[in-house]
Amino acid sequence: MNRLKAILADNRSFLIVYLLFFVTGLVFVLKEGKAAVFIALNPYHSGPLDVFFTWYTYIGDGLFTIVIFVIFLLKKYWSKASQVMAAFLLSALIAQILKNIFSMPRPKEFFPPGQYTHFIEGVTGHGFASFPSGHTTSIFALVMLLACFEKDVFRKLFYLFLGLSVGYSRVYLGQHFLGDVLVGSCIGVMTSIFVHWLFTEKLKHVKVFAKG
Question: Domain segments of the chain: what residues?
Answer without folding.
Answer: 2-209
